[in-house]
Amino acid sequence: MSLKDGLILEFLEEHDLELPAKPLYRNLNRHGHEIGYSTVRQRLGELEDHGLIEKVDDAGYYQISQKGQAYLAGEVALSDLETNGDA
């Protein structure tokens, strides 16, 4: 997990959004978060691998998952994510 992961998760949850990588990158920066496009793309893959976000459709739109919401609420430990990344 990266510091940027929490930023992406919180942004998706706070704004209740479904976004592909490029619009997510643009909106994060528009809201004052300095993050690169390649970083967003990379972190989306990691977050999906850990089950914290999920693809909504084949067009590449992502939303925060229930597991991601539980993680932000402190109900899922970081150690659980790293040992059970594909769970």
UniProtKB/TrEMBL annotation:
Location of the Ribonuclease R winged-helix domain: 8-69
Entry's transmembrane regions: none
Pfam family membership, one: WHD_RNase_R
Descriptive protein name: Phage repressor protein
Organism listed in the record: Natronobacterium gregoryi (strain ATCC 43098 / DSM 3393 / CCM 3738 / CIP 104747 / IAM 13177 / JCM 8860 / NBRC 102187 / NCIMB 2189 / SP2)
